[in-house]
Design brief:
The structure holds two protein chains of two kinds.
Chain A (H helix, E strand, L loop, with lengths): L19 E13 L5 E13 L3 E5 L6 H8 L7 E6 L2 E2 L5 H7 L3 E4 L13 H11 L5 H14 L16 H14 L4 E5 L7 H18 L2 E6 L2 H7 L2 E6 L2 E7 H6 L4 H9 L5 H6 L40 E4 L2 E3 L25
Helix pairs in contact in A: 3-4, 3-5, 4-5, 5-6
Chain B lengths: L5 E14 L2 E14 L3 E5 L6 H8 L8 E10 L2 E2 L5 H7 L4 E4 L3 H4 L6 H12 L4 H14 L5 H4 L9 H13 L5 E5 L7 H18 L2 E6 L2 H7 L2 E6 L2 E7 H6 L4 H8 L39 H5 L4 E5 L2 E4 L3 H6 L20
Parallel strand pairs in B: 3-8, 3-9, 6-7, 7-8
Antiparallel strand pairs in B: 1-2, 1-4, 4-5, 9-10, 10-12, 11-12
Helix pairs in contact in B: 4-5, 5-7, 7-8
Chain lengths: 353, 348
Amino acid sequence: MIESRRITEVIPPPMPDREPLLSISNLKVHFNAGTARVVKAVDGVSLDIFKGETLGLVGESGCGKSTLGRAILRLIEPTSGQVNYRGRNLSTLSAREMRDERRHLQVIFQDPYASLNPRMTVGQIIREPLETYRLARGAEAERRVQDLMETVGLSKRFVKRYPHEFSGGQRQRIGIARALAVEPDFIVADEPISALDVSIQAQIMNLLERLKREKNLTYLFISHDLRAVRHVSDRVAVMYLGKLVELTGAKRIYDEPLMPYTRALISAVPVPDPIVEAERRRTVLDGDVPSPMNPPAGCRFHTRCPYAIRQCKEIEPRLDQIKPEHLAACIRISPSQPDIERVAAGEAPGLNS
Amino acid sequence: MLSNGTLLEVRDLKTYFRTDDGTVKAVDGVSFKLQRGETLGIVGESGSGKSVTNLSIIRLIPDPPGRIIGGEILFAGQDLLELPEEKVREIRGRRISMIFQDPMTSLNPFMKISQQLMEMTQLHLGHNKAQAFDHAVRMLKTVGIPDARARANDYPHEFSGGMRQRVMIAMALSCEPELLIADEPTTALDVTIQAQILELIRRLKQETGTSVILITHDLGVVAGMTDHVVVMYAGKVFERARTRDLFGTPGNPYTRGLLRSVPDPTAEQGKLYQIPGLPPDVAHLKPGCPFAPRCDRVADICNREFPPFVKLAAEHYSLCHFAEDVYRDRQSAPSDHSRHHSNQGYNV
């Protein structure tokens, strides 16, 4: 059950003394694309995901956010780097060991239709992981399936129906029920609401939030929709062309973004208020996202960045702490000069620190 | 007779589809007006009839199974539904043009961009080849294609999604149409590219005075781009108003619910408002209000009687038995959180 009161708990700041549930270090996923061509989809990402948090991962298409999500679960094999989960390095596990671990690490996909077997009934789909991991069988499995359906808001009457008989939102509920069947710790939700209608998006976001509280889950919530990410996440990581460029609390990222890219992203999101829209100043970025096949040297954003200087084309910025609990990858800012608007022309304070 | 300022008036449009599952009343009695130089937004979820409305205006409903069975579409005083097909073809592309969500499906992959643009003006404006090519290059420049003369000879797949949408816009505007219909023009694009395309449409509209119908599911896009809004649900117009009035004082529970269910990034919201349930199956609508099963203002009458289209203020109408209550009651934003939780487990 959901509490009927408004939940306005203050989002806890990410505490350094908290134990990370997952610790990702220098993860890389490179794809071969023909002779001597390599797509660096994920190129050296380090990130801690703390128990009980929702970490939002936001970025435009081609930035590598879905690849990162999948590489964490080894649904795509990382090229190098580590993912530590409860003290075990997932990247060194055998296929069999990894399969066992995956019981705790689940995924929800954007297009639930493509990820549900059309020849299986809803009951069979939700039941399958229970049997695979030998968690329940027979009448007990039956009961668990019914409970799960109820948990995600699907009527038990539908247990014998097939995926095509459901709407997009209902299919997403089936996908969520299947992920929950094995009682995971951690769920990668990869664009879980993008394919859904507005009124259904709110339902699924609320469902995910309720399940997180009730089942003590940790999420990596991947989306291109900054409004949704801001709403569901405790912290947000911004990704651009295979790299993390900013990481901080969800409120902070919206209120005080440090990176020019993050600012442009926020500015690009239309606000559902005609008065605000009429008055706001927009930063419209020029150009397209460059191809990850051949990303720009130096800071990968420099081709579109209104603040880029010569050094930005040469020096690859590190993701550094600029403010407490606020990391950014930009040589034009530093802890002593965090506001890029105030940095003198041509200066790169980040290089000195 | 239309007033001087009205470019398009849709009156009681009905477009039905015959299916194995019965008649789908995809658009059922839709009416609205578009003034010259204005932008009208049509908002709705999938299946609401917003795209079918658009396809009806340009007479591109596949028949069978679809059929415009009633109504009038007055474009500059002329009823498009009365015109023979060849007259409609002269108007389509020339005086009314369209851009769609996925430009790749509207561009011919085997033709150079320049050829596709040239076709438009050769057909409609009688340009010769040289004129048409120059015009094509000029249009590509206008929509911000860098190095337009060289890129004109590229094929669609050589352009990115955002650039393809620019090409579509160049094509749509190349004959200086009076009406541009943009059906989810930015839905397939990234936000930073969406911002570019919206800015482009805004600028071109200002420069050319073209009227625009913008079909979208994104209330943010509506807020920033339109003068008037039509909200559709289950093939019906649920609310129609000036954009600011619609957002400021919505007069329909559906509109109000939609507005509340979009996360506001500037506020700590806690639980998000949600409209329970699912959009109805338009092939099997029950008597009464189609939104009644999901409505937070529902009463007995809603399940029995189809609601009236109530005038709330100048140019502000709402299809609801309680339109005036909803309209007046914007502050009290009632028990929006308590009511639906009991439905959570059963809102199928």
